[in-house]
Design a protein that fits this description.
Two copies of one chain form a homodimer. Chain A has 396 residues and is of the alpha+beta class. Chain A has helices at 11-27, 38-45, 78-82, 102-112, 137-147, 156-164, 168-186, 188-191, 198-211, 272-291, 298-310, 316-319, and strands spanning 32-35, 60-64, 70-74, 88-92, 122-125, 151-154, 216-225, 245-254, 257-258, 261-267, 328-329, 336-339, 353-356, 359-363, 366-369, 372-377, 380-383, 394-395. Chain A is built from twelve helices and 18 strands. Chain A is elongated.
Chain lengths: 396, 396
Amino acid sequence: MSVVPDRGFPVEEFESRTKRAQQMLAERRLDAMLVCTEPEVRYLTGFHTPFWQSPTRPWFVVLPVDGKPIAVIPAIGASSMTATWIDDVRTWPAPRPVDDGLELLADTLAEVADRLVDPSGRIGLPMGHETHVRMPLSDLDALRDRIAPTVFVDATDVVRSLRMVKSPREVQKVAHICDVVSGAFEGLGDLLSTGMTEREAFAAFRIDLLRRGADDVPYLVGASGPGFDDIIRQPSDREIRTGDLLMFDTGSIFDGYSSDFDRYVAFGQADDDARRAYETVWAATEAGLTAVLPGATTSDLWRAMAEVLDGGGPASGSLGNSVGRLGHGLGMQVTEWPSNTADDGTMLVEGMVMTLEPSLTWAPGRMMVHEENLVVRADGPELLSRRAPAELPILG
Amino acid sequence: MSVVPDRGFPVEEFESRTKRAQQMLAERRLDAMLVCTEPEVRYLTGFHTPFWQSPTRPWFVVLPVDGKPIAVIPAIGASSMTATWIDDVRTWPAPRPVDDGLELLADTLAEVADRLVDPSGRIGLPMGHETHVRMPLSDLDALRDRIAPTVFVDATDVVRSLRMVKSPREVQKVAHICDVVSGAFEGLGDLLSTGMTEREAFAAFRIDLLRRGADDVPYLVGASGPGFDDIIRQPSDREIRTGDLLMFDTGSIFDGYSSDFDRYVAFGQADDDARRAYETVWAATEAGLTAVLPGATTSDLWRAMAEVLDGGGPASGSLGNSVGRLGHGLGMQVTEWPSNTADDGTMLVEGMVMTLEPSLTWAPGRMMVHEENLVVRADGPELLSRRAPAELPILG
């Protein structure tokens, strides 16, 4: 069991993030960047609350090209935001549908929008792949009109570049939750048995993860049966029987950072096709691991894994039509940029936290997915999840 | 302990939702409605997975003015979506940044966009208060260009009207999780003691909720101390001491439906100001309850509670500047339309599930929030949470 890392981050971590972001803003001739989604706001400020689950209120952070970030938020968040390293916290009494922060935000953007070369002002806003703007579209349209001639410019690459490479403290948090989850997966034999329903198994596993030190288990999917191809499922009242496979996949959380890996087990016995499928995705992961090096690309990882999967039966044809990739980035969210696909081509650099996630369809309607979590080091991958057994574990 | 309700919904529930929605679409001369957020997709289809936590892939459901909803989704969701009542499931191999479903969605919208009066086509899209469009903004802009002269028209009132009034089966699910949470709150005295840290208290409470039958506890905030005004906080390593107040507020889940209420307790003793504050917000809730009747409005509830709070000390001045409302709707999300505010004015009808949530600042930096959950019945409120004690409970 790893030592529990410190909670939160020292101010210098946020200063470093801000400085890197501002360098990119300057390079792109952006006066500022606007973010309004939970991970981006947390990344820049440290503001950390599950209150984002309430859809009622929008939240904004404006990062000028110099100076500290400015929070433009509902008054209900003032106390929490003031406790972060942010000094400039501007609030309005949300919810106020007639003006839910728009005027305050527009005024703030006007303040920061004329510092650089273009006199009309250019504000970065993430609007590309894996992003969305978390505010009512009618308000966004009104905001665009209101700030004209200042324009929003896509800044996806800024937040993508920032968040994709993790600091040592971020890696520690992911490593810790991966350690907790590894222990829980290794203990499945003590927790589960035939006769339990899927729902009982899920509940037992979730509670076990919390007992072992997960803060929360927001992502838990799984299935049981002789085989299954729905890998994002909630539990049913189906009873686990001898000969079943069971899969759990969890994004558990420590201090706002996520694990994301799965494990398969069989109860009593497993048929040869299932064993072979397991061994193929395990071997594909091995191949992926050997390809992990700074300077290699996500497409190199994809190719290394796909080659093994292509040799493993009727896998290759179905790959592109199911999960769509063979792993991805990991950190504040259960999936993050980049994707291990044939044409993603993102270059790996030290500090990137990734999953390898080969999958194959081993019989009609039966999928096998294997996943490990790692951080890219100078000399190759450092596993954050403890490596799954090379053969399908048989419980009971 | 209530009987555990059935999971899921029979097809007629989705048929009824669809029919109500289509009636509103026809009244508004809309050819179809596009939704892309988790609650709306789940409401129309029954598609239920935590996979939405992954920001990578957009998901779409198109509801034509007649016929069944059409799912336009990543292939990874095909198996789950096909298991719902939806027949027409169109998939693409996401993630595919170069075209992440846009062409498929545009083609689907073109199919459904010329059925009504306006030959150019009008597609409803929720774009008002409490909504956002969950897809990359650059894709949304491209989609708007692509479907022209067909236009998106705000359809917030359609989903708002639909979701605000709950069916008996929906009410049962909220009632069940409120029952589970009520039991856990009533058992706090056995669970918590001075010397525990907030973090330990949170973990114990979360595990207790799961043991009592919550599927998950996605929303849990709280604080401890002689007083506090941050009511959306995560736990710290602060030790609970004699004389402390402790607040937990949880949105726990049963079958995709949420509770949302809090409780305060004191350890060993409580000072008179804290007791008085507790009694004031309790009395404000009583006043709110007497105002709950079909035909009354959310603003009537607000006024009934505000009048008591105004008599309760230095409360009134700070109200509008903190939480911003005195309760709200509840159901698939921890907060939903409508809001109990001075000017919201939404008329209550039978089947609406609401929270009453009066709050006051009883000393500088010290807030007291009280919350109950109810369903509007013909003759008044039916409490779903078990009523909090009239006096601040003292533990230990």
